[in-house]
Design a protein that fits this description.
9 strands, 59% helix, binds NADP nicotinamide-adenine-dinucleotide phosphate, alpha/beta, N-(1-d-carboxylethyl)-l-norvaline Dehydrogenase, domain 2, elongated, three-stranded mixed beta sheet
Length: 332
């Protein structure tokens, strides 16, 4: 019973109860409507069940949205199909025909173009494809052209937050595309990310992601070089990181990767070879503006050296190895 504290007579009490029932009925109808909407309006398919894609697809399943999957190596898709009960499609055309919203998360530009060509045979008007891979803005525009010929919408939706963010559903998602597509795909994006920011038309999402990757390179350079310097000066490294983490130079990479890198450990994280691929995209996009970016060019040289030393699969904090080497060379 609803007690208002100001209705001593029976009529008001009845009226309050009626209002409660009406509110409950409305809420129930709303719940049914939203559940119905999610299941019937947004049959969502996922393509690319890699380190990022698999946990993102699992979050779509938790939100009741995952309807079908396809992966180049079929075993990953059949495993997820068994785990979640979603459809394992034989090909991209079948997945595109079955779904209203399709999320892709594949390795690189040419892979995405191949996948888009495969999806184009099955998509139609009203469908929306969301790409969460990291590729060049020009590739996003090319994919948009391929899909728009079939009447389907496209949003470039690159993500930041790594495999941990993918698992926890806390990714930051930078969206390029029109607002109609974004409104339609919003429940899908909300199931995978915590921060979803519309940054402009198709291609703008990838430009934002490239901006992020340049910043990550600069932070990696600054933190690894400065900590190697501190170490060469015989400072107590744990206490140094504690002090710097509370000052003007504080940042996430210092507090989370600093303590492991000074022990010679580089837990993933974000692979050197993936960041190298992204910096290639950044260099290409800067070149389109007639510019060479010093941080990008320097980091690409350093990563190439790291990869030659067998660190391609290591976390990007392994750049510390090269910075330490500079000081040992001088000492020797
Ligand atoms: P990953 O573990 O290597 O997975 C790549 C996925 O793409 C796999 O499912 C792979 O299929 C599929 N694929 C590759 N080439 C393909 C092709 N030609 N046709 C169809 N499928 C293809 O990579 P990831 O770490 O998940 O990264 C995926 C994307 O997210 C990349 O663009 C990456 O830059 C970006 N990203 C990664 C991170 C991160 O921390 N890892 C963070 C943010 C963004 P198979 O299973 O058959 O190999």
């Amino acid at each position: 019973m609803l007690s208002t504290g100001s209705s001593p007579d029976g009529i008001n009490a009845w009226s309050d109860n009626w209002q409660l029932l009406a509110i409950m009925g409305f809420a129930w109808t709303g719940w049914i409507h939203s559940t119905w909407s999610l299941e019937t309006m947004l049959k969502t398919g996922f393509v690319g069940l890699g380190a990022m894609g698999l946990p993102m697809a699992r979050n779509l399943h938790k939100a009741g949205l995952l309807s079908a999957v396809w992966n180049r190596t079929p075993g990953k898709a059949s495993d997820l199909s068994r785990e979640t009960g979603c459809l394992h499609c034989d090909g991209l055309e079948e997945l595109a025909t079955h779904c209203d919203v399709i999320v892709t998360c594949v390795s690189a530009d040419q892979d995405l173009l191949t996948v888009a060509e495969g999806l184009a045979t099955g998509v139609g008007p009203g469908d929306v494809v969301l790409d969460c891979s990291t590729v060049d803005s020009k590739t996003a525009l090319a994919v948009d052209r391929i899909l728009s010929h079939m009447g389907a919408g496209f949003l470039d939706c690159p993500v930041s937050g790594g495999t941990e963010g993918a698992r926890l559903g806390t990714l930051s998602i930078m969206v390029g595309g029109d607002t109609d597509g974004l409104n339609r795909a919003a429940p899908v994006l909300e199931a995978m990310g915590r921060t979803i920011v519309h940054v402009g038309p198709v291609g703008a999402g990838q430009a934002a992601k490239a901006t992020n990757q340049i910043m990550v390179a600069g932070i990696n350079q600054a933190v690894t070089e400065a900590l190697a310097f501190g170490q060469a000066h015989g400072l107590p490294m744990d206490r140094l990181i504690e002090a710097l983490s509370e000052g003007a130079a504080s940042n996430w990479f210092l507090s989370h990767r600093g303590p492991t890198m000074i022990k010679g450990e580089y837990p993933l994280g974000f692979k050197v070879m993936l960041h190298q691929k992204d910096l290639g995209i950044c260099a290409g996009m800067a070149a389109q503006k007639g510019v060479k970016l010093p941080i990008v060019e320097m980091t690409r040289i350093h990563y190439r050296r790291l990869m030659e030393q067998g660190h391609g699969e290591s976390d990007i904090s392994s750049l510390f190895v090269l910075k330490e080497e500079m000081f040992s060379t001088v000492d020797g």
